[in-house]
Specification:
Elements: H1 7-15, E1 21-22, H2 53-61, E2 70-73, H3 75-87, E3 91-96, H4 101-109, E4 111-116, H5 126-132, E5 137-143, H6 155-167, E6 171-175, E7 196-201, E8 214-217, H7 220-233, H8 239-250, H9 252-276, E9 289-293, H10 300-312, E10 314-315, E11 317-318, E12 327-331, H11 336-353
Parallel strand pairs: 1-10, 3-4, 3-5, 5-6, 6-7
Antiparallel strand pairs: 2-8, 7-8, 9-12, 11-12
The structure holds pyridoxal-5'-phosphate.
Length: 354
C-alpha cells in the first residue's frame, strides 16, 4: 500500500514551528484550558475502547442512531482513515479540492476518480459525480462545509449525492468537521439513511484539535468494520481528549455561539482586506478557511507562500497542496490580535513585491 506525502502537513512541518504568525490554521483558536477539568478519573485506555457509551449515545442522537452506530476515534483523521479502510475495495469518487486525506487514503486502498468543483463559484456539478460512479464504486466522498473553499453545498446537492450513492449501492461519506459552525447546519449525512456515513470531531467547530477526539457514525456494518481497524490503529481515543471533549460537547451551545461569532467577524475583516488589495476569494459561507487568488507577479501559491514566510514569518497554505496552484488558503480562526498582525505583515509583503 503506497500513500502520497501529505503536502499540507509537509509544508507546515517546514515552517509552522518557527513562524511568528500561523495564518493557515484550519480550525478555531482553542478556548482557555482553565475552563475545563483536565483530570480524567483514569489514565488508562478509554473503556470500552470505542468510546464512553453515554457520550456515544449523545453523539448518536444527532444522527438518529443508537450509540452502537457511533465509534469514537482519534480525531476525524482516524474516523476517515478507518472508514476508507473498511469501505473501499475498488473505487471511490471524491469531490475536490478537499482535505488531502479524503482522496489520498482511498487512493492508497483502491482507485479514485476526482470530481472538481467549478472554480468560478466552487459549485458542484452533481451530474459529473453521477458520471464518475461506476460498477464497483464503494463510496462517494464529500467534505461539507468544504475545506479549503469554505463553501457549504446546499441540501439539494447533498440529497442528490445521497441518491447517486444509494442507486449505486455505495455509501456517501461526508466529512462534517465544520458543520456546527453553520448558522443553520444541514442534517448530517448519517441521518439520511442506510447509505450515509458522517465523520466529525471537536477539532474545528469547538476549537479543540489538541483533544484528538472525533467519531464516525453510520450503518452498523460500516461502524463495525471501521472499529475492527481502530483496534489496530490507536486502540482507543485519548482519555484526556475524551474527558475534555465531553465537557465541550455538554456546553456546546455557548462554545459554538462564540466560535460562530468569531468566524463571522474575522470573515468580514479578511473580506475587507482582500477587497482593498483587489484579490478574489472563494467567498466562504461557513467555517474559517478560504481560497484566495495569488497576486500578480508570483509564480503560483508555493512561491508566494515560501517568500511570505521567509520575508514576514507568516504561514499561508499553498494552493498546490489542494491542486489549485493559482491560489493560497487563508485560515482566519486564530485570535483577533494575531489575525491583525498576520494581515499587516501580508499587506507589507504584497505592497513590497506587487
Ligand atoms: C476536512 C477535514 N477533515 C479532517 C481533518 C482532521 O481533523 P482532526 O483534527 O479531527 O483529526 C481536518 C483537519 O484539518 C480537515 O480539515
Amino acid at each position: 500500500m503506497q500513500i502520497q506525502p501529505f503536502a499540507l502537513e509537509r509544508f507546515f512541518a517546514r515552517h509552522e514551528h518557527d513562524a511568528d504568525v500561523m495564518l493557515a490554521e484550519s480550525g478555531i483558536r482553542p478556548p482557555p484550558v482553565a475552563e475545563f477539568d483536565t483530570e480524567p478519573d483514569s489514565l488508562g485506555y478509554v473503556v470500552p475502547t470505542d468510546g464512553d457509551p453515554e457520550l456515544r449515545a449523545t453523539l448518536a442522537d444527532r444522527y438518529d442512531r443508537p450509540a452502537a452506530e457511533v465509534v469514537c476515534t482519534t480525531g476525524a483523521q482516524e474516523a476517515n482513515f478507518t472508514a476508507f479502510a473498511a469501505l473501499v475495495d475498488d473505487h471511490a469518487v471524491c469531490v475536490t479540492p478537499t482535505y488531502q486525506s479524503l482522496h489520498a487514503v482511498p487512493d492508497a486502498v483502491g482507485e479514485v476518480t476526482r470530481v472538481g468543483l467549478d472554480s468560478a463559484g466552487w459549485t458542484l456539478d452533481v451530474e459529473a459525480v453521477k458520471e464518475a460512479v461506476r460498477p464497483g464504486t464503494d463510496v462517494v466522498v464529500l467534505n461539507n462545509p468544504n475545506n479549503p473553499t469554505g463553501r457549504y453545498h446546499d441540501r439539494e446537492t447533498v440529497a442528490a449525492l445521497y441518491e447517486i450513492a444509494a442507486d449505486a449501492d455505495a455509501y456517501l461519506l461526508c466529512d462534517e468537521v465544520y458543520r456546527l459552525l453553520a448558522e443553520e447546519p444541514l442534517p448530517p449525512v448519517a441521518a439520511m439513511g442506510e447509505h450515509g456515513v458522517s465523520t466529525s470531531s471537536v477539532s474545528k467547530a469547538h476549537g479543540l484539535a489538541g483533544c484528538r477526539f472525533g467519531w464516525l457514525a453510520g450503518p452498523p456494518a460500516v461502524v463495525d468494520a471501521a472499529t475492527r481497524w481502530t483496534d489496530y490503529t490507536t486502540i482507543s481515543p485519548s482519555t484526556f481528549g475524551q474527558h475534555v471533549a465531553r465537557q465541550a460537547i455538554e456546553r456546546r451551545e455557548k462554545l459554538l455561539a462564540e466560535n460562530r461569532a468569531l468566524a463571522a467577524d474575522h470573515r468580514s475583516i479578511v473580506a475587507s482586506f482582500l477587497d482593498e488589495h483587489g484579490l478574489g476569494w472563494s467567498d466562504p459561507d461557513c467555517g474559517v478557511n478560504a481560497l484566495v487568488e495569488v497576486p500578480d507577479g508570483f509564480d503560483g501559491g508555493e512561491q508566494f507562500c515560501h517568500s511570505l514566510v521567509e520575508e514576514e514569518s507568516v504561514v499561508l497554505a499553498p494552493g498546490e497542496a489542494f491542486g489549485v496552484p493559482d491560489r493560497f488558503r487563508i485560515g482566519y480562526g486564530l485570535p483577533r490580535a494575531e489575525l491583525a498582525e498576520g494581515l499587516e505583515r501580508l499587506e507589507r509583503f504584497i505592497e513590497r513585491n506587487g
